[in-house]
Amino acid sequence: MRRRAVYTLVHNESIFLPIWLTYYSRYFDYSDIYVIDHQSTDGSTTKLPCNVIQVTHEFVHDDLFMHEMITKFQYRLLEGYKYVLYVDCDEFVYHQDGLDAYIDSMDRPCIMANGYELVHMRNREAPINLSQPILNQRNYWIRSKYYSKPVLSAIPFYWGIGRHGAENGGYFDENFFLLHLKRMDYDIALKKNELTAVSNISPINKKYAWGYQCWLTGQGFDSWFYTDFYPNYLDAHIEPIIDKVKKFMPL
Fold first, then answer.
1. Residues 107-131: pLDDT tens digits?
2. pLDDT band for position 232 (cuts 50, 70, 90)
3. What does the DSSP assignment read for 136-177?
């Protein structure tokens, strides 16, 4: 049995997938990295050096479909790996010991990360330059209970829709950080939402507003970007990124 694998599910992620693959290939062999490709048309999943698994579905954005694919694939990987990490392609986990060393020394069945969201403060920070390290250009984050979630496991997770929690979420490690980058750049996030808004979204997603943050545009997007999740989102919760992450996380 192999020690560790990482996987994600994507659709047209030309910005985040290259960042994700570069980051996780520091800690995982390409043969242990898996990208589930849900009908990408932007070329982002062609000729990748890792494993690419093609899946099809009638809706571009459908949380029930995503939940089924991600859950079934975790079960499949756990047949051949001791530990399996699932993260979306805009999510990056970090431990000061090194992610590979951290996983290789684990003796717990499942781990919850300590989640934070990177935030682009447009009145203080320029648009992101993707040719330069991201954490050299961003200085603020927000603690997020939604991203303090179960991601690493030796047993199948019983995730809820959206994978922000699981019945068997396991041990919370405050030194195992998850950094969510959707808000790393205002314009990149808005452009992606505008593309999602005109795509084929599942009726059940619309009915229950699952993933609503992925198709907001205009004033709704602006309000979400700076106020969603908490009252007085930025004023009350914004913090400088702690040094041990900003200086040493290779992102």
1. 899 999 999 999 999 989 999 999 9
2. very low
3. GT--EEEE-TTTS-EEEESS---BPTTSS-BTT--EEEEEEE
Neighbours of 154 (CB within 10 A): 18
Structural domains present in the chain: 2-246 (3.90.550)
In contact, 156 and 86? CB cutoff 8 Å: no
Cα separation, 68 vs 128, whole angstroms: 34
pLDDT for 206-215, tens place per residue? 777 777 787 7
Tokens found for residue 211: 């993933």
> Cα 171 from chain centroid?
19
What letter would DSSP give residue 8? E
Instruction: Read off φ and ψ for residue 196, nearest 5 degrees.
Output: -65, -35
What is the Cα–Cα distance from 227 to 224, expressed in whole angstroms? Answer: 5
